[in-house]
Specification:
Layout lengths: L7 H23 L2 H17 L2 H5 L3 H15 L10 H10 L6 H10 L4 H8 L3 H18 L3 E5 L3 H13 L3 E6 L2 H10 L4 E5 L8 H12 L4 E5 L16 E3 L4 H14 L8
Parallel strand pairs: 1-2, 1-3, 3-4, 4-5
Length: 271
């Protein structure tokens, strides 16, 4: 709630905690780490010069992102040269989205803000923010299709995921049950996206399978599915951007697949 920060020291501490997420958001918008960081720094400098908008916001994080958005809009929302193949593809698709819809989409789906918080950040009403996200999803779904590989040892779940993905218009290259099967399948039919369970049939790791594949093929978007997300979200090693909990819903899979095609983090994970 507003008024939650008691001192300048508290505000600085809160901003420091939120800065990594602001940098992630800025990079997704600009397509470039250096450019994203520059806009994030500009937003922080604006807050330090006049912290009152942040102090009035529902939270420091919402206020900080709102300040960033103001800086971003004044700069005419520039997209700079992307740093790798996946980022280039993401920016090409993002450029086709309705103005402000990509910001709303990233804020809600990647950064986890509620519709009301997205509205506060963008300076619109909640209904408009929700509409922007829905429009972005619709535009995404119609603009990109690809080949999806499934790594899953439970037959029923594999069939369900395959049906969901194919209903979206994507082609499933196949289903692998073990680490070795996954590596062989990826080499045979190179996917555009991988959906991987963490624990596989022979007690091998889906993370290891993905790392093997990425080592051989280069960056590919990955979505992990696990009944134990807390084992990955420890902060002690690189964490997956896209992580679905078991049991999952069809909407979660559809949303993750659409997002991953655009905003994938392709850092390999240390299993």
């Amino acid at each position: 709630m507003a008024g939650h920060v008691a001192s300048g020291e508290d505000l600085s501490r809160a901003i420091a905690q939120d800065l990594p997420y602001l940098r992630r958001y800025a990079r997704a918008l600009t397509g470039n780490q250096a450019s994203g960081d520059a806009y994030a720094i500009a937003a922080i400098e604006a807050v330090l010069a006049d912290p009152s908008p942040v102090l009035r916001a529902v939270s420091v994080k919402v206020g900080l992102f709102a300040c960033f958005h103001e800086v971003w809009q004044k700069a005419d929302s520039p997209v700079t040269a992307a740093e790798d193949r996946l980022a280039v593809a993401a920016q090409q698709h993002m450029a086709r989205l309705t103005p402000n819809s990509r910001e709303a989409l990233l804020l809600q789906t990647i950064e986890g803000f509620s519709p009301a918080e997205v509205a506060a950040i963008l300076g619109v009403d909640t209904a408009s923010a929700t509409s922007l996200v829905e429009r972005a999803f619709a535009e995404m779904a119609s603009s990109i299709l690809g080949k999806v590989m499934v790594i899953e040892d439970e037959a029923i779940i594999a069939m369900d995921i395959t049906a969901i993905v194919e209903a979206m218009g994507h082609a499933v290259t196949g289903v692998a049950r073990t680490r070795s099967e996954a590596v062989a399948l990826a080499a045979q039919k190179v996917p555009d996206l991988i959906l991987a369970d963490i624990q596989l049939a022979d007690n091998s790791s889906g993370i290891d399978a993905v790392n093997d594949i990425l080592a051989g093929l280069g960056p590919i978007p990955v979505i992990f599915i696990t009944a134990f997300p807390e084992r990955l979200l420890t902060g002690e090693r690189p964490e997956p951007t896209f992580l679905i909990n078991k049991p999952y819903t069809e909407e979660q899979v559809r949303s993750a697949v659409s997002q991953a095609m655009f905003f994938s983090s392709t850092e390999t994970l240390n299993g």
